[in-house]
Amino acid sequence: MKLIAISQRVDFINSRGEYRDSLDQSMHIFINHCGYTLFPIPNKLGISIEELLKDIPISGIILSGGNNIGDYIERDKRELELIDYSLSHFKPILGICRGMQMLANWYGIGLLKVKNHVNVKHQVHGEIDTMVNSYHDYAISRIPEECDLLASSPDGVIEGFISEKNNWEAWMWHPERDEEYNPIFIKRIQNLFQ
């Protein structure tokens, strides 16, 4: 079994006063379709990522979507730990939506508020040229210096970037939410985590 570690969103259940880590079930199905199994990473556990993953043979890391950076500090810290783990253990990362924003944040890149990118589909152009879904209010303000543009939308919003140096890829869309999985995304995931 080939495992990919994945970060989880935080949901607050007001009626119970509970904070829960969660992951859309469609992400498990999509990643399984790509040939991998997800290993969800808790946001609060009391041990470091190094301790948690010391005996877990992961092929890489996905920083998942959901929540804005700064909403839940424990999630932000956990994802920064995962980025550090990626660098120290030479593990690839795929950042999806918020995950792309977190990778850009790691480089010191800020976010911009955008319009007409929530619950719509649009074309992207660049190395990745296809139709994508869109669920984001914020976009990164520029491409990090050591990275290259993967895709942008017709209105000029950066929709994807890649760091060959760190073996990171980042997408603003959610491949798991498509009714029919895009073979372009499946192939890129398989190439990234091989």
Question: Mind sketching the topology for me?
Answer:
Elements: E1 3-6, E2 9-13, E3 18-22, H1 25-33, E4 37-40, H2 49-53, E5 58-63, H3 73-89, E6 93-96, H4 98-106, E7 111-113, E8 118-126, E9 130-135, E10 138-140, E11 148-152, E12 158-163, E13 168-171, H5 183-193
Parallel strand pairs: 1-4, 1-5, 5-6, 6-13
Antiparallel strand pairs: 2-3, 7-10, 8-9, 8-11, 11-12, 12-13
Largest sheet: 9 strands, mixed
Low-confidence runs: none
Number of strands: 13
Which word captures the global form?
globular
State Rg.
16 Å
Question: Order of SSEs, N→C?
Answer: EEEHEHEHEHEEEEEEEH
What's this, in brief?
The protein is α/β, with parallel strands linked by helices and 194 residues long. Helix content is 26%, strand content 33%.
Structure, explained:
By secondary structure, the protein is α/β, with parallel strands linked by helices. The chain has five helices and 13 strands. The strands form three sheets. Strands 4-1-5-6-13-12-11-8-9 form a nine-stranded mixed sheet, with helices on both faces. The radius of gyration is 16 Å and the shape is globular. The mean pLDDT is 95.
